[in-house]
Amino acid sequence: MDFASAIRRIEAARPSHRLDIGDPDVPPPPELVEALGRVGDLHYGPPEGLPEFREAVASAFGVEPSEVVAVAGGRHGLAALMWIFRKKRLITPSPFYPGYFDIAGVFGISLEVVESGDGWVPSFSERGIYIVNYPNNPTGTVLPRGKVRELVDAAEFVISDEIYRDIIFGEFTSPLELSPNVAVVYSFSKVFSAPGLRIGAVVAPREVAREVARFNKATINVPPTHVQRAVASVIDVLPRRRREVSEIYRRRAELAAKTLRLPFVKPAGAFYIFPRANAGCFEKALQAGVSVLPGELYGRPGHVRIALVEPEDALEEAFEVLNRACG
């Protein structure tokens, strides 16, 4: 079953609990909603992004604005970087975000997989361009700092997909902290609970950033300028927002650990769990009124991915249904 088929099946079933797509249920910050209402300038901007947006993101990451390029969401940034490094050896750990293979398939890129061990932590020894995603979708795993060091030492270059870096329950080390040979893909979709805005950034060495801007010019031309302006004006709410959403999703992960009788590695970030489940759990759960996603979409049959995107009372009800259907 591919991703599109799974979603069609879910939409046809109309389950009571949608725990499949990672579409946050937490309301966006009111400051962002207000800022979007104030923006009136809808003219073109430069392909690398508006100066005020690049400066705002640079301040959040502690880099220079010349190392920041606006992109139309995280996947667009990933596509740009995979295109730039298409002639290199590309490697990603399993479980993986299936969007990487969507991009690779369109571009005709070969993407190798390295398996993860205990706690969903892989070993990094092969030389190549690594595409890594921590906090991880689908497992919620966060690499210890020593493993991040192992990664940057092994890699020729790292494409670090940090879409969930703002949802953390402990410590997080970005590869960018340990090596200059890193491009971070960032998005405001999850932290601001606004995936429809389609705005993010690539933070990368200048020569890579310039190539991302060229990719923009050849594809979308200009990332949404009104959204760039709105986000730049509220970048100061990020620290508070990180604390708020991290606490919300941490409590939901704790609830899952207490209530769900399917075994899983406790997440250290993001808003997913990836429990082991018996064959047919996807269909059985769907028939019972709860949608999850089958683990084979993420390279790991025998599991399901559950998105913690409902309030705690609704999640508790959904977990009881899953216990009966898949336990």
Layout of strands and helices, then pairs:
Elements: H1 3-13, E1 17-18, H2 30-38, H3 51-61, E2 68-71, H4 74-84, E3 90-94, H5 99-107, E4 111-115, E5 129-133, H6 145-154, E6 157-161, E7 182-187, E8 200-203, H7 206-218, H8 225-233, H9 238-259, E9 272-273, H10 281-288, E10 290-291, E11 293-294, E12 304-307, H11 312-326
Helix pairs in contact: 2-8, 3-8, 4-5, 4-7, 9-11, 10-11
Low-pLDDT segments, ≥5 res? none
Percent of residues in β-strands: 5-15%
Q: What structural category arises from helix and sheet content? A: alpha/beta
Gross morphology is: globular
- Our count of helices gives 11
- Rg, alpha carbons: 19 Å
Q: What's the β-strand tally?
A: 12
User: What's the main sheet like?
Assistant: 7 strands, mixed
Percent in helix: 25-40%
Q: How would you spell out the order of helices and strands?
A: HEHHEHEHEEHEEEHHHEHEEEH
Distance between the termini: 22 Å
The strand order across the widest sheet is: 2-8-7-6-5-3-4
Mean pLDDT across all amino acids? 96
If you had to describe this structure to a student in words, what would you say it looks like?
- With 327 residues, this protein is an alpha/beta fold.
- The protein is 39% helix and 14% strand.
- It contains eleven helices and twelve strands.
- The protein has helices at residues 3-13, 30-38, 51-61, 74-84, 99-107, 145-154, 206-218, 225-233, 238-259, 281-288, 312-326; strands spanning 17-18, 68-71, 90-94, 111-115, 129-133, 157-161, 182-187, 200-203, 272-273, 290-291, 293-294, 304-307.
- The strands form three sheets. The chain has a seven-stranded mixed sheet, with helices on both faces.
